[in-house]
């Protein structure tokens, strides 16, 4: 049974995962993401329950744009692990929302999720 409450969209970009201030996964990338979390495509595997800081690097542009979130590892799967977001600043959420809407098959569904499901 699918537990996810948010639409996942395919989106691949560099991500840096830090635990207790130390960068654990520097060359990892995202496989997909939602407004609640992302899947890290990496050979490095963190234990379920590990608290971490996630920095998503957005490509393009003159100045680097990155999204920063606090999260927790919630699952393992072949090729990586899933992280549930537990906190982020408003600018990161706005960028994340735009990424999700731009890459979604049904952008209106993303907007509906924002209005109908309380953020965690």
Question: Can you describe this structure?
Answer:
This protein is of the alpha+beta class. It has one domain: Beta Barrel (Thrombin, subunit H), CATH 2.40.10. It is built from two helices and seven strands; from the N terminus they run E-E-E-E-E-E-E-H-H. Strands 2-3-4-7-6-5 form a six-stranded antiparallel beta barrel. The longest helix is centred in the last third of the chain and has 14 residues, at about 90-105. The model has no long low-confidence stretch (mean pLDDT about 85).
CATH superfamily, please? predicted glycosyltransferase like domains
Proportion in helices: 10-25%
Query: What is the number of helical segments per DSSP (H or I, 4+ residues)?
Result: 2
CATH class: Mainly Beta
Mean pLDDT: 86
Strand content: over 45%
What is the number of E strands?
7
CATH topology: Thrombin, subunit H
Spatially, the strands of the biggest sheet line up as: 2-3-4-7-6-5
Structural class: alpha+beta
Note the run of SSEs as H and E.
EEEEEEEHH
Query: Sheet with the most strands?
Result: 6 strands, antiparallel, barrel
What is the terminal-to-terminal distance?
Answer: 20 Å
Radius of gyration: 14 Å
Return the CATH architecture. Beta Barrel
Shape: globular
Low-confidence stretches: none
Domains counted in the coordinates: how many? 1
